[in-house]
Design a protein that fits this description.
Elements: E1 2-5, H1 12-24, E2 29-32, H2 43-53, H3 61-68, H4 76-84, H5 87-94, E3 99-103, E4 106-109, E5 122-125, E6 128-131, H6 134-141, E7 148-150, E8 158-161, E9 167-170, E10 178-181, E11 187-190, E12 196-202, E13 209-215, H7 219-228, H8 232-240
Parallel strand pairs: 1-2, 4-7, 7-9
Antiparallel strand pairs: 1-12, 3-4, 5-6, 8-9, 10-11, 12-13
Length: about 240
């Protein structure tokens, strides 16, 4: 079985809990869809952990920002991570791809196939967040992927079967269950749960199965770390699953 993780955001206790749960359920392989380190938690420790595991790993928007933005251009989360990371961590990030065909029946990206910013499975409207319709997802994907297509970025778990039979899924976030963002409109992505999330895939091709999994972990320790680093905007979501 294959475990698909995304949006770890330097939350090492959540990552360790997810991996232990996945292995207990029979996972023998792992893949990471990006946004691995950015945030006021344990970016360097998480990078070392992931580098030792050597999983296939995508670059998300935060990896791109860590490499391309100056410290003055970055948001607080990237700036904190950059200050903690060593050259070996940045070299590891620089080698990551934006998308991958992991196997014949499984295509993976961070946000969507064309960029690392716009959500594939959700839509931001001025007054609400809504699930993207199947035809909207189909239009963004085009012909990419065959049986399974995985994305991250929104932090919201979802699984949809398109009319042509392709299964599209977002495993949710390992490390941050809620956040606020201003693009393209100010919006909140939140679950109301402090659990860490991932997806567990079994079978292959037309027999592919996708299970979205929620895992309890010591989220209070992660929240305390964020608070100690002056980031209540992370501490509250980590404790409650809500932006606050």
């Amino acid at each position: 079985m294959l475990a698909v993780l995304s949006d770890i955001h330097g939350n090492l206790p959540a990552l360790e809990a997810v991996v232990a749960d996945a292995r207990a359920r029979g996972a023998t392989a792992f893949v990471n869809l990006g946004d691995s380190l950015s945030g006021p938690l344990w970016p360097a420790e998480t990078a070392d952990w992931l580098m030792r595991e050597d999983w296939p790993t995508l670059a998300g928007n935060h990896e791109r920002q860590l490499l391309s933005h100056s410290a003055s251009e970055m948001g607080e989360s990237d700036r904190f991570a950059l200050a903690e990371l060593a050259p070996r961590h940045l070299a590891w990030i620089a080698a990551q791809r934006a998308e991958m065909q992991l196997r014949d029946d499984l295509y993976l990206c961070h946000a969507n196939p064309d960029d690392d910013v716009h959500y594939l499975m959700h839509r931001v409207e001025p007054e609400r967040i809504r699930d993207a319709h199947a035809d909207e997802i189909h239009a963004m994907l085009g012909p990419r992927g065959s049986h399974g297509i995985g994305c991250g970025h929104s932090h919201l778990p979802r699984h949809v079967v398109l009319a042509d039979g392709r299964q599209v899924f977002n495993p949710g976030s390992v490390g941050l269950p809620a956040y606020a963002w201003e693009y393209p409109h100010v919006h909140r992505m939140e679950l109301g749960s402090s659990h860490a999330r991932y997806a567990l895939l079994g079978g292959a091709g037309e027999a592919l199965t996708i299970e979205l999994v929620a895992v309890e972990y010591d989220h209070r320790a992660a929240a305390a770390r964020a608070e100690a680093n002056g980031r209540m905007d992370w501490a509250v979501p980590l404790r409650t699953g809500l932006v606050g």
